[in-house]
Amino acid sequence: MTxxxxxxxxxxxxxxxxxxxxxxxxxCEYDHGxxxxxxPSLLAxxxxxxxxxxxxxxxxxxxxxxxKKNFLKHWTEGKYREEDRNKPVIWVSHKDAEAFAGxxxxxxxxxxxxxxxxxxxxxxxxxWGDHYEKGxxxxxxxxxxxxxxxxxxxxxxxxxxxxxxxxxxxTQEVFDDGMHVYTxxxxxxxxxxxxxxxxEGGAKPNNWHLKFQLLNEGMNRCGTVxxxxxxxxxx
Length: 235
What we know:
By secondary structure, the chain is α+β, with helices and mostly antiparallel strands. It has helices at residues 51-61, 94-103, 111-119, 217-220, and strands at 7-10, 13-17, 20-23, 35-39, 42-45, 107-108, 168-170, 175-176, 181-186, 188-189, 202-203, 208-213, 225-226, 229-232.
């Protein structure tokens, strides 16, 4: 039986970080490299957080967002559909994801940590290697999510699943440039929106992130964004 709570050890290291970025609106003053960054030793979620895990979090913590607009809007009467049990949880904001992580003594991955976890010490462009290979991730172009353990051939060198396609992932940092508050999304998503103002879909390489503006909580919840957690450990 698959343990969807399993964590994977990532040995701390340093590497030259460089990332390509997509900006939907405005500018981005973030230093995209190349620059030397340090990654601490981590225990990171092997899989993105599933609907079943998030449901248990709600039962254990009693968490209720102050602004409930669009919160878990794919659920019915406070629970996921059984066929969605092991799919990545969506329609959760950055703050919702932080609340989940904090309850379990974790946090989200920082942008540079996510890139390292996805590409490994090999610095692969995709979790499995340097070339895109169809069939290693959910890149269907449709609004259909697959279970987080559906693509074993898409694992990263550290053994993390579902880091390409299926659903974007929130990262830890939140920035404020005086005009916009934003964070970065990683991994891409299966759904390719027909309009430019949506987050760009499709499976994305490890050295790519999307600047995502944080607005009100209802608008920060999307049907194409999930998350995974990590915590620092001695390595």
